[in-house]
Design a protein that fits this description.
This protein has about 220 residues and is α+β, with helices and mostly antiparallel strands. It has ten helices and four strands; from the N terminus they run βαβααααααααββα. The protein has one domain: Glutaredoxin. The chain is about 50% helix and about 10% strand.
Length: about 220
């Protein structure tokens, strides 16, 4: 019996990047279907929290994500460009945000086609693994889509022509995450139970095995 789960994910989250490939590998090894549910990063959803939260938090997140990546053997570097246009010194968020809305809509369009997890993994590597500058330029995203089994021209056209509906679906993803009992990413939700963080993957697998998850 195929089990199903939802993965709430942000293209700006280093921890989402560290988790998505491992969850994708899990679906290849186990009789498991994971639906990617992209959300906007908190810097876009609730930018005020950047100024009211502990000022040490951003520094810790950068340090810990780099450390976690080294521990896992996953290459990582801060994205070039950052998916969110932001002054990291002042934390100010720019009014115009061309990158994050584009990539989020592409991710949601991929989910509509049942390939959101694969696309998120391929695109997240472009953004986060440090191998290229300008992940948003040229044919980088087109090749990522191709590796995920998608037609990029079709995705891009839909991201433009159906932007309002895609944005509504993304907002619905955020509402579903909160309804499941969490607010952050990456969070896997299985049978109504949230597993938050890239360090809860083994716990999520254990729970699904309790529910009868088997290898393919």
């Amino acid at each position: 019996m195929t089990l199903s789960a939802d993965l709430f994910f942000s293209f700006r989250s280093p921890y989402s990047y560290l988790a998505v490939g491992r969850y994708r590998a899990m679906t290849e090894e186990y009789d498991l279907d994971i639906t990617l549910r992209t959300v906007l990063p908190i810097a876009i959803r609730d930018p005020d929290i950047l100024f009211t939260g502990n000022p040490a938090a951003p520094r810790y997140i950068v340090m810990d994500s780099m450390r976690s990546a080294a521990f896992l053997g996953i290459p990582i570097a801060w994205p070039r460009p950052d998916p969110v246009v932001q002054n990291l010194m002042t934390r100010e968020i720019a009014e115009e945000q061309p990158h994050i809305h584009r990539i989020v809509r592409l991710g949601q369009a991929a989910t509509r086609r049942g390939k959101g997890l694969a696309f998120a993994h391929e695109a997240a590597q472009l953004i986060w693994d440090g191998s290229i500058d300008g992940w948003n330029e040229g044919d980088h995203l087109a090749k990522a889509a191709e590796r995920a089994g998608l037609d990029f021209a079709e995705l891009e056209a839909e991201a433009v022509s159906d932007a309002e509906a895609l944005d509504a679906e993304v907002a619905g993803n955020q509402a579903a995450l909160e309804e499941a009992g969490h607010w952050g990413v990456p969070t896997l939700v299985f049978d109504g139970e949230p597993f938050f963080g890239q360090d809860r993957i083994d716990v999520a697998l254990w729970r699904m095995e309790q529910a009868g998850l088997k290898k393919r």
